[in-house]
Amino acid sequence: MKILVTGANGFVAKNLIQFLAEKTEVEILKLYRDSTDQELQQYVLDAEWIVHLAGVNRPKNDAEFVEGNVSLTEKICDILCSHQKKTPIILSSSIQAEKDNVYGQSKLGGEQALHKLNQENGNPIYISRMVNIFGKWSKPNYNSAVATFCYNIANDLPIQINDENAVIRLVYIDDVVETIWDILNHKYPANECFEIQPEYSITVGKLADTIRGFKASRGTLITDHVGVGLTRALYSTYLSFLKPAQFDYTVPQYGDERGVFVEMLKTPDAGQFSYFTAHPGITRGGHYHHTKTEKFLVIKGKALFKFKHISTGEYYELETIGEEPRIVETVPGWTHDITNIGDDEMVVMLWANEIFDRSKPDTYAMPLSN
Fold first, then answer.
1. Residue 103 pLDDT greater than 80, yes or no
2. 191 in a domain, yes or no?
């Protein structure tokens, strides 16, 4: 399948081209701003699909709106009509097409050119009036407030907010690309406007606070709910603006004669992750919890876990080694400890179901004795 992508240097096009490059059945034709009219005609005639993403939204003068958003579309339509080619076209328009401004009118003009092509030549058309698109490879001060906020906050630059309560409508780049792919695979009806889903809404103030939180999490170690929904997409976008020198950061390390303890990550409602080491013969723990629970994974060395029920006195012990991916859980009401019974340093990963609260640690000393 030969697919022509216009505006090949643009934010959406770069993501789409990368996505399509991962499909063995696709040949990509790329049209750039400096492509010649001859290249335009050749690509349009060769293509089996046209994904028309080229456009202008921040021109030097209003005339560029017409050139970028109307004239190119009309040229593509003229080529198809003159050669009676019924190649389907997907057009990225804008919700601004509903408004009476120069940019909106230029996007509406592009839509009208496609409707005329459909009526006169029978080409299937797919038009979406896109809301603000965000994601990796977007440009600050150009594509969206998300890109600007991510770039500025990541680089310790100020951001300007005129109205914290203003609501922004957003769609994520991966959802845009996957929707286009579904259209290319005939999963959407032709000659109807299509929408990108899911669409998110967030106030400007909340957006800024969320992105600031991503930056602050390296210090607090508390991560937001970055695995789902809008926060997941915003977090990915924020990270995409980091420079290579910003890829890493240090976390506090607490050490004594037993070894070291390092906290890695904390969550608002799913506990925290850390690791600790122990020298040969060293025992850690010797306490119990009423509610707190933990999971231990020995990743290096040999460990002896001992447990004793704080009420009945029932005793239990087990051994595990780093070569065995085996989780050991602590149970409320059982005092427990872990001893390095190997000859080398022991390294243990630890998850606790809650962030440690010094004012209410739920940790009570009770050393074990056989």
1. no
2. no
